[in-house]
Design a protein that fits this description.
about 60 residues; mainly alpha; 4 helices; about 60% helix
Length: about 60
């Protein structure tokens, strides 16, 4: 069973950034990758701005 504190793996500011991504699949991609890669907020923004989703997920 998950506790309220184990279901959220990213920081509040990372979730605020993710909410701004309109495409739900793209948003989920970045959430998964940020969690798996241990990305900080600046790294998440860098990956987003460099088009990581378009390069990797749409192959």
């Amino acid at each position: 069973m998950q506790t309220p504190f184990t279901q959220f793996t990213l920081s509040w500011s990372q979730y605020v950034f993710l909410i701004g991504i309109k495409n739900i699949e793209e948003r989920r991609f970045y959430e998964i990758e940020a969690t798996a890669g241990g990305w900080t907020l600046p790294e998440l923004k860098r990956q987003f701005n460099s088009g990581c989703y378009e390069r990797l997920a749409l192959r």
